[in-house]
Design goal:
This protein is α+β, with helices and mostly antiparallel strands and 263 residues long. It contains 9 helices and 9 strands. The chain has a 7-stranded mixed beta sheet. The chain has a two-stranded antiparallel ribbon with strand order 8-9. Helix 2 packs antiparallel against helix 3. The protein is elongated.
Length: 263
């Protein structure tokens, strides 16, 4: 009897250790302020799968949406819809799309990376941001360890197969009250509404394009001014060196021609 009790205790302790190990990455995300993303991962039952991915030895890249980023892409009603049992498979696909089974650094930030679901995530940059799947990166290497690196992103990266089904879940009302990056306070599955990241990105890119166009126009105007100035200088020199001839009659009846420079 004592042996059976001891065996049961060992099994209990072992299961406790396994549970703690499998929840470690999600716990780190939550402790670092990515509470909404961590809660979604837990609800989808992905702790073991993610820790198994990280334990393989290769560096796993995670694009972790901030709390505000999730709020800007998915309304509270949308979150409620996503966590329904009927939508569990889609939720898992959406979340796993944020995990890349290899390292993505600034030096390899181009082209596309393949997520753990097999879908491609475009990697690009402009004068303002790095982008992952069209979503601005708020902080590169926000978290880093031996087998994983977390890049903080300002929104949810939606895989192409889920784009149509995710569109109705976006917030209908917009607000600029939330600062990018969100609060460090736990707002379990109840994020506030904020302006859509896509709209803000379009405004920022439009401002950059306008600034570049203005700079190009100013440069072109300066070049034209230089050309005009050179032409005026050339004309002035030509006028100064042009000569005219005038014929005069002398008192002696002879004819004299005097050449004068025209000014």
């Amino acid at each position: 009897m004592a042996q059976i009790a001891a065996r049961l205790m060992i099994l209990f302790l072992a299961s406790t250790c396994v549970s703690f190990t499998h929840a470690s990455f999600v716990n780190q995300l939550s402790a670092s302020g990515y509470t909404d993303f961590a809660n979604l991962l837990s609800h989808a039952g992905l702790e073991r799968e993610i820790d198994g991915m990280i334990a393989k030895g290769r560096t796993v890249t995670v694009f972790a949406p901030t709390n505000a980023g999730i709020a800007e892409h998915i309304s509270p009603v949308g979150l409620t819809t996503m966590v329904l049992p009927a939508n569990r498979a889609a939720l898992r696909q959406l979340l796993l799309h944020h995990f890349i089974p290899h390292s993505v650094s600034l030096f390899s930030w181009k082209g596309a990376a393949t997520s753990s679901t097999g879908s491609a995530i475009s990697l690009s940059m402009d004068a303002l941001y790095f982008y992952a799947g069209g979503v601005p990166v708020q902080e590169v290497n926000a978290l880093a360890a031996k087998n994983f690196v977390v890049h903080s992103v300002r929104g949810v990266i939606v895989p192409a197969p889920l784009a149509a089904s995710m569109r109705p879940l976006r917030p209908q009302a917009t607000s600029s009250a939330v600062v990018a990056g969100g609060s460090r306070q736990s707002r379990k599955m109840a994020p506030v509404k904020a302006a859509a990241v896509a709209e803000r990105r379009e405004d920022e890119l439009a401002a950059v394009a306008a600034a570049k166009a203005a700079a190009v126009a100013a440069e072109a105007e300066a070049k034209v001014s230089k050309v005009v100035a050179k032409l005026e200088t050339s004309r002035s020199k030509a006028t100064t060196h042009a000569t005219t001839s005038t014929t005069y009659a002398t008192t002696g009846g002879s004819v004299a021609t005097v050449t004068k420079a025209s000014v």
